[in-house]
Amino acid sequence: MNTPDKLDEYLQLPAQPIDRFVSPLSRFLRIESSSGILLLACAFAALIIANSPLAGAYEAFWKTKVGFTVGDFNFYHSIRHIVNDGFMVLFFFVIGMEVKRELVEGALSDFKRAALPIAAALGGMVVPALIYIAIQFGQPAMRGWGIPMATDIAFVVGCLAILGSRVPQSLRILLLSIAIVDDIGAILVIAVGYTDDLNYAWLGVAAGGILVVQMLSSLGVRRFPPYVVAGLVAWFAFHESGVHATIAGVVLGLMTPAKPTLVSGDFLVKIQRTSVLFMTDNWGSVSGRAEKVRQFQRVCRETVSPLEYLENTLHPYSSFGIMPIFALANAGVSLELSSLNDSVAIAVAVALIIGKPLGIVSFSWIAVQLGIAKLPRDLNWTIFTAGSFLAGIGFTMALFIGSLAFGDEGLNTAKMGVLAGSAISAILGMGLLLRVLPRDPSAKVISQVDALSALRQT
């Protein structure tokens, strides 16, 4: 019997010599935890280079200014700025689509299922921020309160993958849901807490770009180039307005339609009618074959929503391209033990190591006691508490917010706090889970995609 599981086999193209080189890479890219491995490797590479004789060249490269001039208008920024404000827009666009998907059909679409991760994530944002503020109260560095608020989903997935099937599926789903809600919180923090003086003229242009996107969607425009142009205008306008440019990516991600144009029944009718063209002996002499093939491709693409199609298409570029480049540009810090004595590094590390699990567990316990949320049956407070330490891994978003809070001045000490806090959180989380989880010799790796699929089915 033909099943969806056989689709990959049916659509397999004839083998080519290049496949022997490409196939291993394709398999690596399909493993979700691989992005965490690559991200970690790039972070280590940046650290090694920043503490080697190449440190000067490393820093000089990322500070190199590139851009263009049009008449009296100049657009020149450092390569690091282009990575953080330009490339990261794609990362935030994917984040926006992930949030939209979970709001429409995932764990956040139903209040009963969403209550626990929302309460946990709220505690995991509020308590670390309060701990940081308490340590830095009255100091200029208090501006960095948003640094310890977010969880790095790629590293959390990597840690859970190493532990294998010993980790309850409910804990995987809960930690991933917390990370997604964290992303929403981090986006709001960036928009509200780290926005400079506003230029309302450019903000109006940005709003115009967003309205054009909405208009194109309402008119049923299905080709991507018009959206890309309008999106680039919105990004540039946000950049010039004082609102952080990555907000454009989030807004556009949230606006991406989550419903397909064709349902399976309509698609089946079209396939049955058009299959005659491909089965005829005269296909080789049919005129306009290229255009007919393009039409067929468009029909196939419309069976999935633009959100699903774009998320699937762009996720590898975000996870295996943008995030590693971001790590290379921002994780390089001169490792000086004296930096760990700096109050900023201490505040960030303590907020991540202690504030994250304390906030997650305490707010979750309160929500359960009030009857708002319910702890999954296969999860107890001991395992949940152990897993909550993994939420203290705040690498990508923490470094990003740190760059917004401090720029180049004082950023190194914040980076030291992020790196130390994230590393200790990972060690504590995995160590505690290994201690409290039952042993399972048949452990296997479960990817984020598998976990999210299960999450949507629960």
Structure in words:
With 458 residues, the protein is mainly alpha-helical. The protein has a domain at 35-59 and 107-193 and 315-457: Na+/H+ antiporter like fold (Up-down Bundle). The protein has 19 helices and two strands. A two-stranded antiparallel sheet has the order 1-2. Helix 5 (79-105) packs parallel to helix 11, helix 6 packs across helix 8 (169-193) and helix 16 packs antiparallel against helix 18. The chain is globular. It starts with 6 loop residues before the first helix and ends with a helix.
The average pLDDT value, as a whole number, equals 81
Approximately how much beta-strand content do the residues carry? under 5%
Uncertain runs are: 441-452, 454-458
Which overall shape is indicated by the principal axes computed on the Cα atoms? globular
Fourth-tier CATH superfamily name of the domain at 35-59 and 107-193 and 315-457: Na+/H+ antiporter like domain
Question: How many H/I helical runs?
Answer: 19
Oligomer: single chain
Q: In total, how many beta strands? A: 2
The gyration radius over C-alpha positions equals 24 Å
Taking strands numbered 1, 2, ... along the chain, how are they ordered across the largest sheet? 1-2
What is the CATH architecture term of the domain at 35-59 and 107-193 and 315-457?
Up-down Bundle
Order of SSEs: HHHHEEHHHHHHHHHHHHHHH
Largest sheet: 2 strands, antiparallel
CATH class of the domain at 35-59 and 107-193 and 315-457: Mainly Alpha
The secondary structure category is mainly alpha
Per CATH, what is the topology of the domain at 35-59 and 107-193 and 315-457?
Na+/H+ antiporter like fold
Helix proportion range = 55-70%
Query: Gap between N and C termini, in Å?
Result: 27 Å
